[in-house]
Every structure is written in structure tokens, then in C-alpha cells.
Amino acid sequence: MLAPLIVTVAPCIPPYAALHLPKLDLSPDMIAQEVIDAHAAGASIAHLHVWDHDGQPTGDLGAFHRTIARIREGCDIIIEGSTGGVGDLTAAERCVSLHADIEMASLNVGSVNYDQGVYVNSPDDVRFWASEMARRHIKPDIAVFEVGMIQNALRLADEGLLKPPYLFSFVLGQTGALPATPKNLLFLAESVPDGAVWGAAGHGGADLPMSSLAMMIGGHARAGFEDNPYYAPKRAATSNAELVRRLVRIAGELGRPVATPAQARGMLGLADRQANSRG
Fold it and tell me: Which has the closest alpha carbon to 169: 207, 138, 198?
């Protein structure tokens, strides 16, 4: 019997991809509304980047705070902040989201080629981010682009910086990294410790195949404009919620129930926010 499916929505489209969809509203209020609608469609986690009012990466938390506040007013979805990014930001600048009202954060545990560049995550920086998450009681979502990153994460666990249940997100299909194939997804799924929670995020148009396969073998799924803003070739998705609804529909056909945020919190070892707010 498979556990309920956790669906993550990732609405923050990269600026270079947004250039091809100029009519997108990337304001804090619209991102918040996209998350609220995706929650209504079945998402229980929202993966968010720190953006300014125009949808550009920034170290200023003003717009991010507004987005989170609007989301909190509209639904009880789990909010995950990103600590990723390719650029010249320092380790501290990359993890400004940890200062916001978030329950989880992405943790990139190794470096990897990224198209024509290099996505640099040095051991010292990774340990710094993991330490900050532990200190702030924020759950790490361990991003895995190559199988060696799983071992990097387990070394952090041995140091006491990561606590079970571990959460791994397999990012497949990134140019320069592990291709999005069923064989690679199965290999990664078999490489994590027993009891770990894992999900798939496919890039380069592989979001739907990877999520669908993950659903069938016990993993979890992700969709959103960050991974792929298209519903089908040459047909842009009308919303992030449309992409989430498709995953929920497939899960229903497979006979797998979709987790509520409360159920997802239980599966991930997170505190019950509603219970905390009552007492």
C-alpha cells in the first residue's frame, strides 16, 4: 500500500524562461494566488524562490514576505524556500529565505554542470546551509542532481545536521547532469536509505514522465512553471493549478490518494501549524 502522494507546486519560472511568456504576471500577489489555486487543486507543498516585485531574483525579502503572508491567508500549504541559484551570491545571500516564515528549504548538496555553466555548491557552503536549517528547525529538502549527492547528504546526517525522515528530491533532465530516464530514477530511488521520502522533478519537458513514474513506485511528484510552463508542446499551461490537476488526475487513475498538507506534515515530521496556532 503506497503512502498518500505529496504534490509540490513550483510556480517561480526562471527569468530566462519568462522571456518567452511575456504576459505572465510575476508579482507577489499573483504568485501567491497561483499557490492558493494549486493548493485547491491538490498541492500540499509550495517551492518558492525569493523574488522582487517583477519576478527577478533578489536578496530583499520584502516581496517574499508579502507572497507568504497572502498564501497563509488563503490556505495551509507547506511553504518551502529555495537556497539555490546560479550567480555571484554568497552562501549567506543564497539562504535569505531561511529568515522568512517557511517550514522547509531546498538543500543543494553538491556541484554539477548546468548547461554551459557550473552550479557550485561547495562542501563548506552546504554545511553552512544545513547548519542554519537545523538551527532554525527548517526541514531540508535535499536536491539530488547526481547519485553522489546522496552520499554527501548522508555524511551531513552522520554529523547530526540532518534528521529523519530524510526528504530527497531527484532533479533529472538538467542539461549537463543526470538524464531523465526511468533507469536513472529507479537507481536513485534504490540508493536512498530505507524510510526516506523522495520525489521527482523533471526538467527539459521530463516533468510529467518523471512524476508519473515516481507515483507508481512510491515516490512523490512536482509540477509548476519553474520546471515546465507548458502543458503540451507549443501549448502553455493556463496556470500552475492546471499542471497540478493533471498529476492529481493521474494519481486517481493509479488508485493513489493525494496527501493534504496536514498529512504531508505528518509524513515529513513537521509540526502541525494549526495545532500550534491553537495552543
Answer: 198
